[in-house]
Amino acid sequence: MSPSVNGNEIQDADKPVKSGDLPPAVEDRPPKVLISGAGLSGLFLANLLEVAGIPYAIFERAKEVLPLGSIICLTANILPAFEQLGIYDELMKFAYPCLASTFYSSKLEVIGSFRTDDDEKLIGYHRTLFPRPELYQLLLSRIPTEKVHMSKKLMSFVQNKDGVMVRLQDGSTVHGDILVGADGAHSAVRHNMFEDLLKRGLLPKADQRKMMKGFICMVGTTDELDPAKFPGVDNPYSVADLILGDSESPYSWSIYNTPGNRICWNVIVQLDVDASEDEQFRNSEWSATTNESLIKEVYEFKTPFGKLGDLIDKTPRDRISKVFLEDILYQTWSHGRAVIIGDAAHKLLPSTGQGAVNGLQDAVILANCLYDLRPLSYEGIQETLKDFQAQRFSHVKTQYEASQFNAKLRYGHTFLERTLRHVVFNYMPKSIQMKQLLKDSAYRPQIAFLPEFPKKGSSAVLPQKPSKRYMEEQKKKAQAQTQQ
């Protein structure tokens, strides 16, 4: 007998699919969701579907989830959803509020700073830093093990009005109603989806371009450090220090103290705009030799904790990674029964710390839309996935543009970028900065099929689309209680 995944039978590739195996055109049941990718977006979506009672299964190409040993920033834009799920307090056990950001020259001269001590009073939450592995493990621990399938790389999928069939690398297939591509910037779901749209002449030209690659980043997290040798590493909060290379240098480097007396550091190199993509690729291969070469170049760079090399020496080499910082916003997020979320749909530069937040917001809104998908039909699925993008696109576009602007401030080394940085740090009124902060914090999508979490802070919050199904269910419960 073939193994079953939430009612979806995994079949051998050569086993014929009988028409009787596929669901009828319209049914009064929740959709069976196949999630490709066990990253943050995929795991968070699985957590939401588990609560919503929507059947799902995750297929991850890796043998095990091994996230990079870096940090991730979550904000008021997503933390209310963690409160609704009842895991906020657990989340805070391995979190640090980030209370300040300081910008230095390569000689450690202060060139700008921002304090965020009042964020909790105004917004309700601090910008909060989490070690990425701990956040992964928290989300993964809440998912039944039988619903997560490792070493299951998606190769292709086919779909029609009756269902979607996913073909995996091991030759097996799995059937469902909806396929979610949460499989990252180089998404196999997006690749297959766009390939089919291109053949049909339906793929916009904007979605046929390649991701922009303007920077390379090397990142790592140290082992536990001795506060006597690294004063301040044991502070119960985080300070983000960004150091900018001089006019002859394409480098920027950052450090953040994190829970466990550790420091997360990164080095960002701005690529020559005239360099070819092949040259850029050769300069960014993920190999120990290339990392060691770059380590030698940056070893003597100064930080408030001493030389950058001192931190690198305290970092296991297997926790040092080097990647392109790519960015793109795709126009097409769904096709038939397939939809993409997170980095698969929009890859943001990390300059605003909103990349992960946007992926988690995608999961919330998609789960809300799927919860209201009744009855189940092919037409209803298409409308639901389009509604998901309609609710999310403008918000993502705003953050995408902000990440590009902030990248110029944080990583840019051209004359115009340095001039822009000088103007912002020295002449932009604090009132304008605060106004922008409050505007950015107003969008806080919550889980529509759970009780709304009370607003924190004094600043305004944007309303969101309610769940018709949830409202009807609450009305019926209230009527039943009245009749008792």
From TrEMBL:
Pfam families for the chain: FAD_binding_3 (PF01494)
UniProt keyword Plastid, yes or no: no
Annotated region (Disordered), positions in chain: 1-25, 456-484
Annotated keywords: FAD, Flavoprotein, Oxidoreductase
Single GO term (MF): monooxygenase activity
Segments forming domain FAD-binding: 32-193, 318-393
Keyword NAD: no
Classification via InterPro entries: FAD-bd, FAD/NAD-bd_sf, FAD_mOase_fung
Protein family: Belongs to the paxM FAD-dependent monooxygenase family.
Protein name: FAD-binding domain-containing protein
Species annotation: Dissophora globulifera
